[in-house]
Amino acid sequence: MDLPQLLLVGLVLLLGVVGVLIPGVPGTWLVWAGLLWWALHVRSAVAWSLLAAATALLLVVQVVKWLLPPRRMHGLGVTARMAAFAGAGAVLGFVLVPVVGAVPGFVGGIYLCERLRLGTHGEAWASARAVMRAVGTSVLVELFACLMVVGAWVGAVVAQ
User: Fold this and answer.
1) DSSP of the chain, one letter per residue?
2) Confidence (pLDDT) at 77
3) Is the pLDDT of residue 141 over 90?
4) Which of 89, 92, 120, 139 is the most exposed, having the fewest neighbouring CB atoms within 10 Å of its CB?
5) pTM of the model as a whole
6) What is the pLDDT of residues 11-60, one digit of tens each?
């Protein structure tokens, strides 16, 4: 696969990760479609193994999301700005502390957004906890899985 196609696959994967944070956008399926595109062009054992593992992981995530409590966003102040802070925190955490850093980065992003909005530590922490209980867990599960798939893809591309 040549460099322009790799960049396009990377763009689709990035759009999928961002899409996880935007309600109504099928971010998980964009990540999977990007990986499928890559596997169909590369046609190696690593590509097919990664696609199979990612398919299994992303299907399990869909079941887990379905089993989690329903989202209760009304009255919590969940905004697009908060989603951007949470997503940026998760990606930054994922890069700084590979894989496990996504979780504290996600929560830290929500806390930072609320701290800027509300001003005090106590109010910001209480609001961040409420947001995590209502919507954060399902979004975090999906985002974490997509980041793991993208990280594995980057590793496979670099190793080739």
Assistant:
1) --HHHHHHHHHHHHHHHHHHTSTT--HHHHHHHHHHHHHHHH--HHHHHHHHHHHHHHHHHHHHHHHSPPP--TTTT--HHHHHHHHHHHHHHHHHTTTTTHHHHHHHHHHHHHHHHH-SHHHHHHHHHHHIIIIIHHHHHHHHHHHHHHHHHHHHHHH-
2) 67
3) no
4) 120
5) 0.72
6) 999 999 988 887 778 889 999 999 999 999 999 999 999 999 999 999 99
